[in-house]
Design brief:
By secondary structure, the protein is α+β, with helices and mostly antiparallel strands. Helix content is 26%, strand content 32%.
């Protein structure tokens, strides 16, 4: 590979890193073919800041009230990620709470759902993916907004 191609590859990788940062993505993977036996395969990733943001509020609570032992377990049990009825996103995409603009939402807080009922849609690469209820129960919390971007594993809602 020539020095000129190397410089172009470095610039390409820097541009990918910039795209990652600007669009708040956690990972990008690209394969670039130059010739029959000459290609560049790049994977750029970073830690999800969402996980760090969730961990920060939990840490100060015990330090702020070291005498009161009872509130600390209550705060830990209120973390939606620890809830057995937590529904997470199976993919990166955009959330849609209804099937089409102007239609009522698939579910709202307080609705009873059966296993397999559509809770919302995650659009990924122009494909509408219906997210089914993993179990029957009542929707107690909706943790995302319509048209919000979500990552793989993002909390969507709680079903009890």
């Amino acid at each position: 590979m020539s020095e000129k191609t190397h410089d172009a590859d470095v610039a390409f990788i820097q541009a990918l890193a910039e795209l990652l940062r600007e669009n708040d993505l956690t990972e990008l993977e690209v394969k670039r073919d130059y010739a029959k036996d000459d290609q560049l395969s790049v994977r750029v990733s970073r830690k999800a800041e969402i996980q760090a943001a969730v961990a920060v509020p939990a840490a100060p609570a015990p330090a702020a009230a070291p005498v009161a032992a009872a509130p600390a377990p209550a705060a830990a049990s209120e973390d939606p990620a620890d809830h057995p009825g937590a529904v997470t996103s199976p993919m990166v995409g955009t959330i849609y709470m209804q099937g089409e603009p102007g239609a009522p939402s698939f579910v709202k807080v307080g609705d009873s759902v059966s296993e397999g009922d559509t809770l919302l849609i995650v659009e990924a690469m122009k494909t509408m993916n219906h997210i089914p209820a993993p179990k029957s129960g009542t929707v107690t919390r909706i943790l995302v907004e319509d048209k919000a971007a979500v990552e793989y594993g993002s909390l969507l809602m709680i079903i009890e």
